[in-house]
């Protein structure tokens, strides 16, 4: 299990123990974390699972694919240097303790 903290749009945080190999989107949706829509179910075509990765730890997350970079151009909330699609980030032991912030809107 990999401990990840999700900061919801309301400002409240939820700490989850995510099974290794699960995407952060999958963990958030399965556990009722607010603010991730995930319309495409993780197929990297909708961009409604946009999150901000803790900037201090951004380098520890595997870099985005070309497809993800393209989709990030179309996110509804402000795109930042630490913007990522949470369906494309897999829980690995290296990410233990990571904080993910969910933007106010996805669509
Ligand atoms: S769930 Fe659709 S792009 Fe992530």
Question: Which characteristics define this entry?
Answer:
single chain; 107 residues; Ubiquitin-like (UB roll); binds FE2/S2 (inorganic) cluster; five-stranded mixed beta sheet; 2 helices; 5 strands; alpha+beta
Topology:
Layout: E1 2-7, E2 13-18, H1 24-30, E3 50-53, H2 66-72, E4 83-85, E5 98-101
Parallel strand pairs: 1-5
Antiparallel strand pairs: 1-2, 3-4, 3-5
CATH class: Alpha Beta
**Which overall shape is indicated by the principal axes computed on the Cα atoms?**
globular
- Beta strand %: 15-25%
Provide the spatial order of strands within the biggest beta sheet. Answer: 2-1-5-3-4
Q: How many β-strands, per DSSP?
A: 5
Query: pLDDT average, as an integer?
Result: 97
By CATH, the architecture is named: Roll
Q: What percent of the residues sit in helical stretches (DSSP H or I)?
A: 10-25%
Our Rg estimate from Cα atoms comes to 12 Å
Q: Which structural class is indicated by helix and strand composition?
A: alpha+beta
CATH-derived topology = Ubiquitin-like (UB roll)
- Domain module count: 1
Which small molecules are bound? FE2/S2 (inorganic) cluster
Number of helices: 2
Span from first to last CA? 31 Å
Summed up:
It contains 2 helices and 5 strands; from the N terminus they run E-E-H-E-H-E-E. It has 107 residues and is of the alpha+beta class. It has one domain (2-101): Ubiquitin-like (UB roll) (Roll).
